[in-house]
Target: ORC1-type DNA replication protein
Amino acid sequence: MSDDNPEPPRTDDVEGETDGFSTTLEETAIGDEEPSQGLFDDLLSGEPIFENKEVLRPSYTPHELPHRTDQINKMATILVAALRGETPSNILIYGKTGTGKTASAKFVSKELESTSQKYSVPCDVEYINCEVTDTQYRVLAQLANKFIEKNEARIDRRVDELEDRLADLEEYDGADDPSDPAERPADGTGGTAPTDDVSSGTGTDPQSSSSPVETEGSSDELEPDADSAHPLTSTPFSDREEVRARIDELEADRESFQEVPMTGWPTDRVYSVFFDAVDYDERVVVIMLDEIDKLVEKSGDDTLYNLSRMNSELENSRVSIIGISNDLKFTDFLDPRVKSSLGEEEIVFPPYDANQLRDILQHRSNVAFKADALSDDVIPLCAAFAAQEHGDARRALDLLRTAGELAERSQAETIVEKHVRQAQDKIELDRVVEVVRTLPTQSKLVLFAIILLEKNGVHSINTGEVFNIYKRLCEEIDADVLTQRRVTDLISELDMLGIVNAVVVSKGRYGRTKEISLSVPIDETEAVLLSDSRLSNIDDIQPFVQARFEN
Ligand SMILES: Nc1ncnc2c1ncn2[C@@H]1O[C@H](COP(=O)(O)OP(=O)(O)OP(=O)(O)O)[C@@H](O)[C@H]1O
Model:
């Protein structure tokens, strides 16, 4: 990029087309004669390391999932039933965070939906993240509205097809003698079921075939058999009046759908709208409930109970559930009936080891980075760090992306080991900052007391010392003072979060005490605490701590 003579913005191609716009551009070009000061030029001049950074982000769904073939095949073996018009067993998927559960389940459902379209087998997959949608009302409302939307789209498609058929009839009648409906070739298809308007009688008997069933839904099923055939051949309609009546019926159905508001209705009404929306059409519905444990934790197992007993009441459709969880114990809280129905099939996603993580990173890095942007030790190191955690692919990918960003920021040409180590520290610090920022005020005060003690050179801090400083901090900001016992509990919680390290040491005949030390970087943690408006009111901390030591 040349930095001496930047080209002015081109105005000629917009001139005369949009007056206001071209004036603005011209004014900018003429009035803003100062050339840019190169703020971005330096940054742009560095050879970019990334080819496509997006593929390293959590939102990206990979097309390939190395080391998950067994799990993916098992899911597919269970779900193939949907393509045969049967109800697949419910599936529970377990595994620790970052083991590819969501990515694999989404991959399989995408394949399922596209295969169902290929063979014109109606099958819908709906994904819900129960961390976000965490009550029965919200889950049912979201599902109801999704299915209403799908039903509306299907109705629109069918109405269009029927109207095309009416137009064909017009043309046919114009060209030939008006056909006597009675003379229309009989094809034996029925004419009463609500979805029969697109049954084509293609000759496939769903029951007799183990290949995908042929049912309604695809637009070409309304195509006449041959150019010369009567447009109503192979349809359940005898004449245009019947076609018109069916269009009216479909439009009335469309009108009758009522979207569920996000709050305010009794739950049984929401359930009944959801039920009707699912049962409107013949199809297999797969409902994927990610983080299903969060739903059970927040609002019990009613939703799962209702979803799992639906099949006995549905007339046209069938529902199957895929639950995804990283908490192996959540089924202990389920009603035994729900537990056995939900866990018909269980698939476990084990943590990745360092070699597997290496493969995963290698696959992604081929697309994410420019050639030669990575030194040889980068991927093994990212994999090793993430394997130490608990075999978390998300962490491994985050490390690689962050290392790349740090290298890019320092205008390095390649990512080297140093960048990975810096990335590891940065991610850890970001985690600490987030945990500390979201602590309750009382825990923040306890942590602040520990920081003040450490900053004043006190090592092997004991609970009594923390409690004394904590009390003074509470007085300073007018907060309630908890008992020493509660403060001891809060210290244990900070220990569990990895913010402090509290070990019980025996003092011989003086009994046992806790020795507390900080496990996180002191300055950054203090800065996060002081960014809390309540704690930032504590002025002039040093003398006040000194005073405590002098007492
Ligand atoms: N085998 C794999 N190949 C490629 N990428 C993978 C693989 N496994 C996981 N990933 C990637 O790792 C990240 C985390 O995966 P995913 O969200 O599927 O994990 P999860 O098991 O559902 O975790 P959580 O329980 O925290 O939701 C995603 O970016 C995903 O694309």
Summary: Residues 1-45 form one domain.
